[in-house]
Amino acid sequence: MPPRIIGKIDLRDYNLTRDIEHLNSVTKQPEEYDEFGQGHWKNLSIYNASGDASDTQYRSTDHCLPTEHALACLHLREFIHTHFKFDNLQMVRARSLVDGLVIPHRDFVELGQKTKYFRVFVALEDNDESFHSDEHGVFQMRAGEVWYLDAGISHAAVNFGLHSRMFLCLDFMFEDAFVDTDIFGAQAAIDFDCHTTYIERQPLHTTHVSEIISATSKIINRHTFKDIVFALSKYHFIYDLPVSSCYDWIISAARQADNLEIIDKAVGLRRYLIEQRDIGQRYAINDWNA
């Protein structure tokens, strides 16, 4: 399902500057799927199933509890409680991505399909060098906008700059039919006159693609593999390409190089990130002994 703006909230009613500064100052800790981000990529649990700020694992819960980060951010906590219902809320995270990239992947691959997962993002500040993408295109989120993102399809994110890009990620779960507005609280003040737009990207000729694959085949090995994954993952933000085309390019390059080790590694990476994985399964890009 394509991403869309559900509505916009006026952030001028909330002094979030100090809360954002606090969240940016929190030391990054190891977390789930950490190695699929490059640069400064940080996810802080604001509300979760345990109330433990070090718990970064998404899972179903009947009680979404505040962590120490929620308790430290008075205005942000007021913002969340005013505008969003907790009935079906599973987790709230603050996400910071600076001078970095989250490579194309799918979430909830390992979870059942009967339950309806509904993920929304709220941009807490503007950043002209920050972009999101999925199978439908590349787009930017502006401060106060509430976006639905289908985390079950391939998607990625990038911040080409050095400035903060703080977002809220709210995960809801519904057992029965619902509409977008079911996530909002009774006191929510939402502007629904919003329009979803995509970034216009440059075309990339098939000849250029062949040249990229050929050049990659000459340098790809176990020492360059991770760097190549991140480099080629950025192309679709600039050129009109499928979000996960980078994995097909890498597999083709490995086959041109006739490198069975890299072929297996690349095929396994694509399978894990966008095709199939088990609950609790991990995949280390630089682990060549698995």
Automatic annotation (TrEMBL):
Q: Where is the L-proline 3-hydroxylase C-terminal domain?
A: 197-280
- Per the record, the domain of life is Bacteria
Gene3D superfamilies in the record: B-lactam Antibiotic, Isopenicillin N Synthase, Chain, L-proline 3-hydroxylase, C-terminal domain
Q: Where is the Aspartyl/asparaginy/proline hydroxylase domain?
A: 27-173
| Pfam families (alphabetical) | Asp_Arg_Hydrox, Pro_3_hydrox_C
Name assigned to this protein: Aspartyl/asparaginyl beta-hydroxylase domain-containing protein
- Lineage, please? Bacteria, Pseudomonadati, Pseudomonadota, Gammaproteobacteria, Pseudomonadales
